[in-house]
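In keeping with the milestone schedule agreed at the kick-off meeting, the structural modelling team has produced records for the first pair of proteins. Each record is given below as a sequence line and a structure-token line. The laboratory manager (R.T.) confirmed that both were archived under the project's standard naming scheme.
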Amino acid sequence: MLETIHARLGEDGLTNLVAAFYRRVREDDVLSPLYPPDDWENAEKRLRDFLIYRFGGSDRYIQERGHP
């Protein structure tokens, strides 16, 4: 049986990965302007929940936002 990314990294690992990504995005001259400056936390939560779901974890993203 294949191990899922979620099983390997866990929710904490995926949370840390997404947080590291957004730390870099906030400083990026090209990507940063694509995000509303007052919505960083929600953007990070949406991506985190989506990746957790897609990689085999909780379906919190689907419950809150519907199927992508």
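The second protein of the pair:
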Amino acid sequence: TALLPAVALGQATTSKYEAKLSGANEVPAVTTTATGTFTATLDEAAGTRPPRLSVPAITSTTAAPIHTGAAGANGGVVVSLFAAPTGAPASSINVSGTARAADLAGSMAGNFPGFVAALKAGTLYVNVHTSANAGGEIRAQVLAAAAAPAAAPAKTGTGGPDAAATESGSGGFAVIGLIAVAVVAAGGARLLTARKR
């Protein structure tokens, strides 16, 4: 089931996911000062998930994919987010774009429903690989973002300190729209999830 109702304003079912990467989340844990953030908005109807990965400072980054696997377990790559040019590792990552069902790889290749199920179950993680830590230097599980609070009901009444105000109205739904943004990469890196025509 979707985190946000599909009936809200008649829009497609979308949901937002995020991850905060650190060395402590690696298996086994890695001592590093590097950190990062990942966000994605899943649009199930369109079969897209615009991801954004930002790692402000890290030494010799070689790749950053999404893996399948629960917290505490390692798994295979299912989506490639970033790869440094051969022989030119990057010192930071700032990539965004639009990934589609056709971009899935490994055990999720051709299985968008399986990817969505794993995403909702919290069994996908983002991992940033470096020259010093080929298995991963920072990592985080991709989890559903906290839902925005419902809008406060509208108040009606006569006002005044002694008047009993009555409340009427309906709560609101936060609907996250599909955003496709251009690729931006630091250090000559490239986003591998761009569509090929």
